[in-house]
Amino acid sequence: MAQAKIQAKMNEAPCSKFSRTLSMADRSGRLLENLDLLETRVEALREAASAMEQERECILEMIQSIQNSQEMRNICAGEREELDLTANRLMGRTLCVEICVGTIRNSQQEEALRKATSIIDEMVKKLLSDMDGGRQRLLALHAACVSEAPPVPIDQKFQAVVISCALEDQKKIKRRLEMLLRNVENAEKNIKIMDHQKLEEPQANGSQ
């Protein structure tokens, strides 16, 4: 009888251990499944925040474009002042919205971002002193960030720097260059319009 009880206990031990192992595997699987779902939500959160960040940049750019537009120069001073106050109010409210999507970088990516930012900053300085030369430099930098073959020379050194940046930083660098291109195009249009008006003024005065 005693031997039968001992034999029964020996038979139960492996079964109970095997049962606990299955239970731990189930728990681990459920935890992993939850983490996978959370990872999806984290990525969705980052994408939504990034979209909001881009929307903020777009709104600020549009406000500045309206303030610097030829239409603003063609209205009377009183109306222009009122519109400027509205634009400045909208600008202030937009700037109060702070959105920051951080990027995890290694030391190589940190250094690459620093170099890329420095190169763009130098190009902006050139734009302020030499519009034509700065524009050509800007086009070469932007060409280094697009996948399709551009019709302008590519700055290959800058391209190598950008490739060394984190993927999110690459997207931000490209967006910054695209914004600068739009600003340059708008500035050139305004210069041409103002110059055309000056050329027309003597003719208008001569016809009176």
Automatic annotation (TrEMBL):
Does the UniProt entry include the keyword Coiled coil?
yes
Query: Where is the chain membrane-spanning?
Result: none
Q: Does the keyword Cell membrane apply?
A: no
List the molecular function annotations (GO) for this entry. Answer: adenyl-nucleotide exchange factor activity; protein-folding chaperone binding
> Keywords for this entry?
Coiled coil
* Coiled-coil zones: 28-62, 167-197
A Gene Ontology biological process annotation?
protein stabilization
**What name appears for this protein in its UniProt entry?**
BCL2 associated athanogene 2
Naturally occurring in which organism (per UniProt) = Seriola lalandi dorsalis
